[in-house]
């Protein structure tokens, strides 16, 4: 039997300030390898909070999360940091590139942090990812001189540099026009064809319709699988 790429069971999450708020209410979710999932819902429904739990960036929750056969719930921060570097790529709505660094340097950073490959090998891998994003011609440009769509493509290349099992993206096209949104969608579809698992939080109905499955959330609960 195939092991799910991700399985979350009865996740509960509370915010305690300024008053207690039950933001995720017994959320369970299973995602298979190679699936392209969109999570949708109104602002405040808990979808971004869910994504941060699945990414292991937020560990303050009840329930359990298993990613590619590893139970990440209860791992300490050092273990989680190592697991993220190996297995998870995260794409934010804002690219968080270092504007004074070149495009190539930005993409290389997670691999340098991983510390497994020498710098020449990392640079080669980074150029391969930029080629995949059709951004290799900008490799020596500083990131701050790119357009918004170009910066987001570089951010995706950075998320892919360590060949993660799963890509999580929080409103990756929220700041982009329709042309750049179509480019980012095409990149995600290509990643899925290559065997990656992609989970995207989005408000964009047109974007979501191109995914394999839409998960809708209301008031901290999943209402449609």
- Please write the CATH class name: Alpha Beta
- The quaternary state of the protein chains shown equals single chain
Taking all Cα atoms into account, the compactness measure Rg is 17 Å
Overall, the morphology is globular
CATH topology: Rossmann fold
- For the secondary structure, the number of strands is 10
> Can you write the helix and strand succession as a string?
EEEHEEHEHHHEHEHEE
Looking across the biggest beta sheet, what order are the strands in? 6-7-8-3-9-10
Main beta-sheet annotation: 6 strands, mixed
- Termini separation comes to 21 Å
- Going by CATH, the architecture would be 3-Layer(aba) Sandwich
Question: How are the SSEs placed, and which strands pair?
Answer:
Blueprint: E1 6-15, E2 21-31, E3 36-40, H1 47-54, E4 62-67, E5 70-71, H2 77-87, E6 88-91, H3 103-114, H4 119-132, H5 148-160, E7 166-170, H6 178-193, E8 197-201, H7 205-209, E9 213-218, E10 221-224
Parallel strand pairs: 3-8, 3-9, 6-7, 7-8
Antiparallel strand pairs: 1-2, 1-4, 4-5, 9-10
Helix pairs in contact: 3-4, 3-5, 4-5, 5-6
């Amino acid at each position: 039997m195939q092991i799910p790429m991700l399985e979350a069971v009865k996740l509960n999450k509370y915010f305690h300030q300024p008053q207690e708020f039950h933001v995720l209410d017994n959320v369970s979710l299973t995602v298979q390898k190679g699936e392209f999932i969109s999570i949708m819902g109104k602002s405040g429904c808990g979808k971004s909070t869910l994504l941060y739990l699945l990414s292991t960036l937020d560990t303050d929750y009840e329930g359990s999360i298993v990613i590619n056969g590893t139970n990440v719930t209860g791992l300490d921060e050092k273990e989680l940091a190592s697991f993220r570097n190996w297995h998870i790529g995260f794409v934010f709505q804002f690219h968080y590139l270092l504007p004074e660094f070149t495009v190539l340097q930005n993409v290389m950073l997670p691999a340098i942090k991983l510390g497994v490959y020498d710098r020449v090998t990392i640079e080669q891998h980074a150029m391969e990812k930029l080629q995949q994003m059709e951004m290799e011609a900008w490799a020596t440009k500083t990131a701050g001189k790119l357009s918004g769509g170009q910066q987001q493509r570089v951010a995706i290349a950075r998320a892919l540099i360590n060949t993660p099992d799963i890509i999580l993206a929080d409103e990756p096209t929220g700041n982009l026009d329709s042309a750049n949104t179509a480019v980012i969608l095409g990149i995600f579809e290509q990643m899925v064809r290559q065997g990656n698992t992609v989970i995207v939080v989005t408000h964009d109905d047109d974007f979501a319709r191109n995914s394999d499955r839409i998960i809708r959330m209301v008031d901290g609960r999943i209402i449609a699988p």
